[in-house]
Amino acid sequence: MHTPESTKPETSALSDQAAKPPAEQTPNSITVTQTENDALAESSDDPDMKPSTIDGGSAAWLVVLGAWCSSFCSYGWINSVGIFQEYYATGPLKDYTPSQIAWIPSLQIFFMSFLGPLMGVLFDRYGPRPLLLVGSFMHVFGLMMASISTKYYQFMLSQGACSAIGVAAVFIAAVSSVGGWFDKRRGLAFGTLATGSSVGGVVLPIMITKLIESVGYGWAMRTGAFLIGALLIVCIATVQRRSNISTQNRVEKGALGKPFREKVFVLLMIGLALVPFGLYTPITYLPTLAIRASMPTNLAKNLVAIYNAGSLIGRLSSGILSDRYGRFNVFVISCYLSGILLIAMWIPGTSDAATVTFAALFGIFSGAYIALVVALVAQISPIEEIGYRNGIASLVQAIGSLVTSPIAGAIIERPNGVLGVKLYSGAFLLAGTTCILFARLVRTRWQLKAVI
Question: Where is this region: Disordered (predicted)?
Answer without folding.
Answer: 1-51
